[in-house]
Amino acid sequence: MAPLTNIDSLQKDAGAIEVEKVASLDVGNVPKDVDTPLTDEEKKIVKRATRKTDWRLIPILGACYSISAIDRINISAARIAGMDVELGFRVGDRYSIALLVFFITYFIFEIPSNVVLRKVGAANWLAFLCMSWGLVTFGAGFAKKWTDIVICRLLLGLFEAGFFPGSVYLISCWYTRFEVQKRLAAFYSINVMANGFGSVLAYGCMQLSGRNGWLGWRWIFIINGAMTMLLAVLGRILIVDFPDKVHKSRFPFLKPAEVASIQAKLERDRHDAEYDALTMNKFLSACARWELWVFALKFFAVTTIVYALAFFIPIILQGMGYSVGMTFLLSAPPAVAAVPWIMLCSWAADKYHLRSPFIILQCVLGIVGLMIVAYAKNNGARYFGIFMGLAGANANIPTALAWQANNIRGQSLRMVASGLQVGFGAIGGIYASTVFMQKEAPTYRTGLWAVTGAQLYLVVSTLGMNYHYWRQNKKADRGEVVLEGMEDFSHITMSAPQQGRQSPEPETQSDAQAGQQAQPNQQGGETETQQKSDDSKNNLPSNPEHVLAKHSEETTSKKV
């Protein structure tokens, strides 16, 4: 009996060590028992952890990105508020130059910023960026000549470059494939809503014209810059780090068991909960994947219409004969009305596990809106076209981001992919700022057609990528390829993906045993091993809270 006693003692000691590891949440300590069904109590832990993450992560990131977008596009409000006259922006293409230079630095520093983000921590880096572009925006209010604004725009692009891809990367590391679009949509919708009211804020700033001898456009930059710096301080306090690093926070917002449940959820979803450091070989390998470049070009097409409408809606409205004040007020309702559509599309896309059909639908909506703006004679009809264009354009942002995030694995790859994708979005801004020529004001038909062409390309490339992924899934079903290094991985296409497939040649002994015990499911080729949760049994895996691992303290206590 003595040996048994010793074994029991060893088991208890090992269990204690494992629980201690879970409490400290080392980077390598991702729960591995991800196929065990959850108890009701464990499901509650998962739901609570996800809900707490939602409220802690999404609002502050959305608020900071909103102020960045306002600081980026408030140049259009400043132009109407007197900057054109005082600094001579009506001469030639000076305004287009000021718009364009922002995107040069914005494009260059996307991926490097993501690398720094991972090294220094999300809260430190994102708050630093926010404070920096706030200072630049504040300084733009003291410009003496038009070239000063150009320099400020270059610096603004440098500091804003990292925030959006960093936020997308951070969010995608906290949520599963069919949780992420709703969260990206909520994050982005805060920005859309704020931009709508940003025009009202700009109008309020204009009322300070004459105070301290400054015109209204200066107050727009000064007040927006001051607000940004205050928000940066709040961001430093509230922004959370990656799941594998969040335990290092001085005031952690999740308990150890809750963080473990998040990590296990991610491991079950795509087996990349652990961080894999970015090396030069991994970077070059990522750059060699042609799919990432297609997604980047697709995002270029997505952002062309977003930037075009953001930069030129106030000018188009003013060209309809509205006063400056009415122009700002009329800019808000289309943006606010777009938010319910964004959230509805994202909810449906996550629920039905679809991406490309929604991209095409939103492209059609955007194209119809642009054509109404370009050719309708009635101002009311043109204004309705702005509503349609903004809804379709902005709803495609989270959809396009989620589609790429859903089809790749590995945190280092995700880091490069998000930076590259959002970087090409900056090229969309360059494109939009150059095709709208001043001599065509206020109709800008060449610009509207150029943006429409980008949307048509988006439709064609979406169909092409969908066909490619469909073929890859078929090959994987036949056992000819392994997608993304994961046996049961499926790409997202026009139809909902399979949630698992039996490996024809299991690589490990445990995999082989699981393959021998599993029986095919008549409805979708799924196995009993892959159907242990209630949702999987009903072929309804769209409720992500049920796709998780067991509570780590209980699971690890069984290990030796």
Summarize the structure.
By secondary structure, this protein is mainly alpha-helical. The protein has 20 helices and no strands. The protein has one domain (52-274, 285-472): Up-down Bundle (Growth Hormone, Chain: A), CATH 1.20.1250.20.
Structure, explained:
With 560 residues, this protein is an all-alpha fold. Helices cover 71% and strands 0% of the residues. Mean pLDDT is 81; it is low at 1-28 and 501-560.
- The helical percent reads over 70%
Briefly note the structural class of the backbone. Answer: mainly alpha
CATH second-level architecture: Up-down Bundle
Largest sheet: none
Distance between the termini: 19 Å
In terms of DSSP E residues, the strand content is: under 5%
Number of continuous helical runs: 20
Gross morphology = globular
Attribute tags:
560 residues; mainly alpha; Growth Hormone, Chain: A; 71% helix; globular; disordered N terminus; disordered C terminus; MFS; MFS_trans_sf; MFS_dom; Major facilitator superfamily (MFS) profile domain-containing protein
Secondary structure topology:
Blueprint: H1 2-24, H2 40-87, H3 94-108, H4 110-120, H5 122-140, H6 146-160, H7 163-172, H8 180-206, H9 216-238, H10 256-270, H11 280-287, H12 290-319, H13 324-351, H14 356-375, H15 379-406, H16 411-435, H17 445-477, H18 509-517, H19 534-537, H20 552-556
